[in-house]
Amino acid sequence: MRCMLCERLSLSHLCISCQESYLTPSLHTKTIASHVKVHAFYNYSDIEALLHTKHTPLGFYIYSILARLAFKTFAEHFVWEMPVASLSIDDHTRSGYSHTAILNRALHNKTIQPYYGKMRAQNRVSYSGKSHAFRLNNPRDFTFLHVNEQQIILVDDIVTTGTTLSEAAHCIYKAEKEVLFCLALAHVE
After folding, report:
1. Cβ atoms within 10 A of the Cβ of 106, count?
2. How far is CA 83 from the centre of its chain?
């Protein structure tokens, strides 16, 4: 096969050279409305073509590579004094897999326990390309299923306005749990 970025022959959809040259994560932090920090690994514009694969069979492979480069590397260096749960936002299976579940799975380490199906939106409207006003007028209406850990990391693929993560964080706070921070694959400036 050929690398999606450089088109050289490769054993992977993204060759090792391109992974090292173009896909080295660089943490960007912003604070969302719920006063929670969101750490994103990439600028959206830098990996936009890769992110557009998420609802295709190819997306499984691309998201797995990005999860390894960003989330797994983060987890290898993350140390905390108590167990932490990580929850993927709205990890319904679409196109044969859940892109947020792939990211969440890469966080597993001695401290972080990933959970799936614990933060699901009752309103399944798509926010893709929608305005901030639209997002505010069409809340996700999250349901949070209990986890034993007191501190939680929320995981999403793309953060734009922070509306989704803010609403999920509020749901966690109502359950008397603490959002330690949020992790996103990419952020839109």
Report:
1. 26
2. 20
- Close Cβ partners of 81 (under 8 Å, ≥ 6 residues apart): none
Q: Is the distance from CB of 142 to CB of 163 less than 8 angstroms?
A: no
Q: Which residues of 85-98 are buried (b: 16+ CB within 10 A; e: fewer)?
A: bbbbbbbeeeeebb
The DSSP letter of residue 33 is: T
pTM greater than 0.85 (yes/no): yes
| 159 phi, psi to nearest 5 deg | -115, 125
For residue 188, CA distances in Å to 28, 100, 121, 159, 160 come to 11, 17, 22, 6, 5
In order of their start, the domains of the chain are 24-187 (3.40.50)
Task: Quick: pLDDT tens for 70-123.
Answer: 999 999 999 999 999 999 998 878 778 899 999 999 999 999 999 999 998 887
DSSP 95: T
- As a whole number of angstroms, the distance between CA 16 and CA 169 comes to 36
Tell me the C-alpha distance between 187 and 41, whole Å: 8
Token pair in block for residue 96: 């044969």
Q: Which of 29, 58, 42, 51 is nearest to 165 (CA)?
A: 29
Q: Which two tokens stand for residue 137?
A: 């007028």
